[in-house]
Design a protein that fits this description.
This protein has 295 residues and is of the alpha/beta class. The chain has helices at 10-25, 30-37, 41-48, 56-66, 70-82, 102-109, 128-138, 144-157, 159-162, 176-180, 186-200, 218-222, 258-274, 278-294; strands at residues 89-90, 112-117, 169-175, 205-210, 225-229, 243-247, 252-255. It has a seven-stranded mixed sheet, with helices on both faces. A hairpin with a 4-residue loop joins strand 6 (243-247) and strand 7 (252-255). The longest helix has 17 residues, at 258-274.
């Protein structure tokens, strides 16, 4: 599961995934890549499945053979340094090229996702209008061009919920607070909450609201968090360990030690039990949406 000497497996799993995609884009087989690098084929396989840490020099050599851009090469070399870290925060900023995002890659590979958000509707459930206002608030002075790109990326992520083949299984609890905070104005909120009502009716999504009347519950202590789980292998074992992601103002924290995952699983059970049922939650969301419509 997790190598205690190197901490979280998240960065090396993600690095392996990016390197595999680059190799496949270059139309190189594992055998051909190994011959070019003068490595064994098992070594390429271990790298691409995130089983080993990598030196930045090795990553540079792989990127050169795979034809990666200088910007992406530098980003992956930086990620390689994190494969040896004992614990880490990532705050890539402007050095990461557009589309290179650790969490988005993990999210796309996940088979199920469990969310608790007490302050804001998570990006996977946001409408374009809501996302636009949130991003503009987060990045003061952002240009319209960059804003449009970030909104498009956020909306593009959401296809994992409605794709025909194996849509993501999602369980989410929102605090009643996020329904009543008027972000973007009344019409934006009315549209956003109507979108939540629609999503809550999809067979792969279970959405609940924890009411303010519930008082203290585990989510008050934990803050927002995501639990990602990945497809099983043919023998029923996990292809990758479950991963906790907690978003912060300057970066995201990733945890995948079994004890950490168990703690968050237990916290989510408490939040789920404190919440309204799916039917009652849908009624509440629709009721609040109506209040925005009425002005």
């Amino acid at each position: 599961m997790t190598d205690g000497a190197t901490g979280s497996t998240v960065p090396r799993r993600q690095l392996g995934r990016y390197l595999r995609e680059l190799r496949e884009k270059a139309r190189l087989s594992v055998k051909a890549a190994a011959e070019n690098l003068e490595w064994s084929t098992p070594k390429i396989w271990r790298i691409e499945t995130g089983q080993v840490a990598l030196r930045s020099l090795d990553v540079r050599n792989m990127c050169e053979i795979y034809g990666a851009s200088p910007e992406l090469t530098q980003a992956l070399m930086g990620l390689a340094k994190e494969t040896k870290a004992k614990g880490w925060w990532h705050a890539y900023g402007d050095v990461i090229p557009e589309g290179f995002d650790l969490y988005v890659g993990l999210e796309a590979a996940a088979s199920s996702l469990t969310l608790y958000h007490g302050e804001i509707i998570p990006g996977l459930l946001q409408t374009e209008g809501f996302a636009r206002d949130i991003i503009r608030t987060h990045i003061r002075g952002i240009s319209e061009h960059e804003l449009d790109g970030r909104v498009r990326l956020r909306i593009a992520r959401q296809t994992i919920l409605t794709r025909v083949t194996k849509p993501l299984n999602l369980r989410v609890v929102l605090s009643e607070t996020v329904l009543r905070r008027p972000i973007g104005g009344a019409q934006v909120m009315a549209n956003q909450l109507a979108h939540l009502v629609y999503l809550s009716g999809l067979p792969n999504i279970a959405l609940r609201v924890v009411p303010l009347a519930a008082g203290a519950h585990e989510g008050v202590v934990t803050g927002p968090f995501n639990i990602l789980r990945f497809p099983l292998n043919g023998d029923g074992t996990e292809s990758e360990p479950p991963t906790i992601y907690a978003d912060g103002y300057t970066g995201g924290l990733y945890l995948d030690k079994p004890k950490e995952v168990a703690q968050y699983d237990e916290a989510f059970r408490g939040i789920w039990e404190a919440s309204l049922t799916e039917q009652a939650s849908r009624r509440l969301i629709a009721e609040v949406a109506g209040s925005y419509e009425q002005g």
